[in-house]
Amino acid sequence: MLTDEEKFRFDLEGYLVIPGVLSADECAALSSQCDEHWPRQTDDGPFRRTADVSKWGESFLNLMDHPKVLPYLVELIGPRLRADHDYSIFMQPDAPGQLLHGGPFLFETDHWYQYADGVMRNGLMVATWVLSDANAGDGGFTCVPGSHKTNFIKHLPGDVRAHERKPEYVRQPVLKAGDVVLFTEALMHGTAPWTGVNERRVLLFKYSPPHSSWAKTPYNLADYPNATNQQKRLMAPPSVEDHERVVE
What we know:
The chain has a single domain, classed as Jelly Rolls. Helices cover about 20% and strands about 25% of the residues. The protein is built from 6 helices and 11 strands. A 6-stranded antiparallel beta sheet has the order 1-9-7-11-3-2. Strands 4-10-8 form a 3-stranded antiparallel beta sheet, with no helix packed on it. A hairpin with a 2-residue loop joins strand 5 (about 115) and strand 6 (about 120). The radius of gyration is 17 Å and the shape is globular.
């Protein structure tokens, strides 16, 4: 369950950092397995992205319903949430970024945040697993705290959106390997160019309410013969009538 302070911060800012979910050894093991499943090629650029990291084995699939993170998602999306898709982003020094994007109900109508009677609910949400440190000024994940409730999305200046200017209302959180960043896609967020000395490595798992889907193709359970019953429930396609989906 979220603490009272975490509820305050998420409602205020639209994201949370859960520190130290993974140990240094766990991060190193996952990173090594990444190199086995997705080795760098000679023609790869400094920015790499690939989908379906959950297919890389049990260690990756188990991030989907990690016991330290899933309770946050249940409280922020609801007990019938579903896993929507997953991927990874690796960035070497001088890798380009991605524009600030997202925001409530601009074009993507599943990007929303609502509060009523002490309960927070979100549309598409993200759990970003940090495998390498992101120090102050390194770049990587950036956001506009509080923008998940803004009424003026289109007023964000183009040079700010492109990371060409860095006003005080854009934040790059300091992150340590093993941290998990939770944020709603209603939050304006992006990826600043990477200037860190190490390679940035993150794994992203995204989740939706039971009735919606962002991915064009849902998970194929045939690709996950060793998935647990709970993981199978999470990976089921969207439905408004599936009462067996409840996750605990």
